[in-house]
Design a protein that fits this description.
- By secondary structure, the protein is an alpha/beta fold.
- The protein has six helices and nine strands; from the N terminus they run βαβαβαββαβαβαββ.
- Strands 2-1-3-4-5 form a five-stranded parallel beta sheet, with helices on both faces.
- α1 links the parallel β1 and β2.
- α4 crosses α5.
- The longest helix has 16 residues.
- The chain starts with 5 loop residues before the first strand and ends in a 19-residue tail after the last strand.
Length: 256
């Protein structure tokens, strides 16, 4: 019963991975990204929980590069069956397949890969992060509403960029939008001083279009594209009109 109280320990398991090298360092990645969110969530739960005689504790395990993720996972699963996972897909799937995790509830907080909801789906894994397909579909639906039917796309050359670009292409086809051209971004210099001259030339041969979509998952080059294109068109995807899971401008559910 509620009067008996409830003590819940939630695990936070992170593989510490250095962020990919980018040409620009305008926005350094917070060292506690992910953990800060988990800590805030536990404080929120505890604030409400004290009125219901509930207590929530956070058990944090950070796995450095080269250390055994499986060993750390087993140690944490011995203490709790509720684990928030901030780790690459290989570690997440390995954790989900551990015998010790068979009856656990694992929350994927960082991997947007589409196959985690298809052929790589695991029954003990739930997702707090949208997949690339979800984000791409949201952008395509908005484009349909605005009647931005003709797209062109700039795609980075990283695996994540290509996966995101593929998701944008699939969503465009699903919602009967036309992807009229695509180019791969291969600049290897910081664009802060040269974007105004390089970008118009790079986009000059695009056919007329309603929307320029950018697939740049780590946020390396996309920021230089708005207002520097040959044709004055809205930019979407990784910059400009971005499909996101959370935004500070949304008031519902205490987002602000």
């Amino acid at each position: 019963t509620a009067s008996d109280g409830l003590d819940v320990t939630v695990g936070y398991l992170e593989r510490v991975v250095s962020p990919p090298a980018t040409l620009s360092n305008l926005d350094p990645v917070p060292k506690d990204k992910g953990l800060a969110g988990a800590t805030l969530a536990m404080k929120d739960n505890s604030t409400t929980g004290k009125f219901l005689n509930q207590r929530y504790d956070l058990e944090t395990v950070l796995v450095k590069e080269g250390d055994s993720f499986a060993e750390a996972a087993r140690s944490l699963l011995a203490k709790t069956s509720y684990v928030v996972v901030n780790a690459p897909k290989t570690d997440l799937l390995m954790l989900a397949d551990l015998p010790e995790a068979k009856n656990a509830l694992l929350l994927n907080a960082s991997v947007p890969d589409i196959d985690l909801r298809d052929e790589a789906c695991r029954s003990n894994v739930l997702h707090t992060i949208p997949s690339r397909a979800m984000l791409a579909d949201a952008l395509a639906q908005f484009a349909v509403k605005k009647r931005w039917s003709n797209w062109v796309m700039i795609e980075g050359d990283r695996k994540g960029d290509q996966a995101l670009g593929k998701a944008f292409e699939r969503s465009a086809a699903k919602f009967r939008l036309k992807l009229k051209a695509k180019k791969t971004w291969k600049f290897d210099a910081d664009m802060r001083r040269s974007a105004a001259t390089e970008l118009p030339l790079f986009t000059q041969d695009f056919p007329d279009h309603d929307l320029l979509v950018v697939a740049d998952e780590p946020g390396d080059f996309a920021r230089y594209i708005p207002y520097n294109t040959w044709l004055p068109r809205p930019v979407a995807g990784s910059e400009g009109l971005g499909p996101v899971a959370w935004s500070a401008v949304v008031e519902q559910h205490g987002a602000a």
